[in-house]
Amino acid sequence: MIAGFGAAPLAVADTVPTGDRVRAMVLDELGAYLSTDSGALSALHSHALRPAGKLLRPLLVVQSALAVGGSAHPVLPAALGLELLHVGSLVHDDIIDGDTERRGRPAVHQRFGTDRAIVGADALFVQPFALLAACRQRGVPDERIVAATQLLAEAGRQLCQGAMLELDQAGTFPTTPDEYFRMAGLKTSPLLSGACRIGATLAGASPASTAALGRYGHALGLAFQARDDLLPYDTPHEAAGKPADSDLANQRPTLPVLLAHRLADARDRRLLERLLAEGARGSDTRARTDAVLRRTGAFDAAHALIEEQVHECGRALSELAPGPAVTALATLAEGLRDRPVPPTTAPLR
Fold first, then answer.
1. DSSP code of 204?
2. Of 282, 291, 224, the residue nearest 257 (C-alpha)
3. What are the structural domains of the chain?
4. Can you list the alpha helix ranges (DSSP code H) found in the chain?
5. What tens digit of pLDDT does each residue of 8-39 get?
6. Are 274 and 306 in contact (CB under 8 A)?
């Protein structure tokens, strides 16, 4: 039974918890949820949800509620629901992409088999609606839950649209940065923007504040996707938590590769087109792609686009009253400006 599980309400003196405290509360909520999960799905869900990832979406739900004067405890079930939906999408992504690991562990379909992984992810997709309803036992009015449910359903629909568009773009280079961001705006931004709007809606925010947080989440999603596309080139494999050559192997022109293709000379364009068409995995393919990105200045171009979206995040947050939660949201966006130095590779062609 979902109602009643989770962390105890915050004391009055702790109504605006720190970022670390918010994360701890979400982890407590996750632990309590998994303790009630039983039957054939239990082991699969525990494997999929632990160890926890960044918990970005649940953190956005809670911080958005706090940013408009709400409290954390009433919205925690909804926050957990966003994480379940996200993790369910990752399970399906790994099956589609043929990736064998996630977060440094065997992917769910590797551990439990593809059929069970699909069914387990389906369960993660429907559970968020029950978790939203559980907010009623924590004092959230029914009309806010209904509105948040509509936001959740719309975010899920847009996510699927984005995934279809990404599949349509595979193996080709006609994609422009605008088309890329349209795909990312459907594939990645909806759950981030939706998380912000759901948190604000459950907390009873004004339409203006809810819209501002939605715009923040949308820009954050674009910046996050662009930063994620750089992981294979500037982040150690252990930290990335997923195969570094997955996008290349699945013939997907991620942002840095797309930018390199636009900036490259004819010889490097042909090389990128061949590498993408081959859809090969392996360090040699990755090294050759990395060398072209370095020669063309694609890393700098990608970071410039990230900078634009981080600036949009700041503009959206400027419409809210200052406070610890708004500062925490700004810090999340600012962290995407981080620019690790890509490892040096030989200028392969």
1. T
2. 291
3. 18-337 (1.10.600.10)
4. 19-36, 42-49, 56-67, 76-97, 108-112, 114-134, 142-169, 177-187, 189-202, 207-234, 237-240, 246-249, 255-263, 266-278, 283-296, 298-317, 324-334
5. 444 333 456 777 899 999 999 999 999 887 78
6. no
